[in-house]
Specification:
alpha/beta; globular; Rossmann fold; 185 residues
Amino acid sequence: MSGLVVVISGPGGVGKGTIARRLVAEDDRLWLSRSWTTRTQRPSEDGEAYKFVDSAMFEAHREKGGFLEWATFLGNYYGTPVPEAPDGIDLLLEIDVQGARQVRENDTDALLIFVAAPSQAEQARRLRGRGDDDTHVKDRLIEAERELAAAEELKATTVVNDSLDDCLTAIRQIIDEARNRIATA
């Protein structure tokens, strides 16, 4: 991989997908890798959010070395295919903290950005708003605590998404600073 690798991670309901789509739409130097999952597509979810596959297809791709990182989360597989970003373009990954850890192990220069909700109550509201049932919301909130601890361990930069525009401004600034460090190195 050439160029900067930017990892956007965080628990469910913090807006990672929206943030990633906006960053790519507004920055022609970013290319978003589309992750694979074995989970069922949510009714409110854009079909372009993931490549939805069955377990057999996922496992076959994994066995061929087709993933940069992969993990099991709440009983489903998630993975980032080996990227095919154009030369000279920075890679943007929207993945969970387990995946961020794997990326960091393979690329110590990867830029890790952890997106957090302003509160558990707001995160729960967002999860319910996208169609998650109460059991799933509870599981996601418990996992969010673990993910925050893991992000701190990985020394990811945390940005709170209490205002989408403010969050995007902060993330753009973090990316620009990383690009400037690379350009002057």
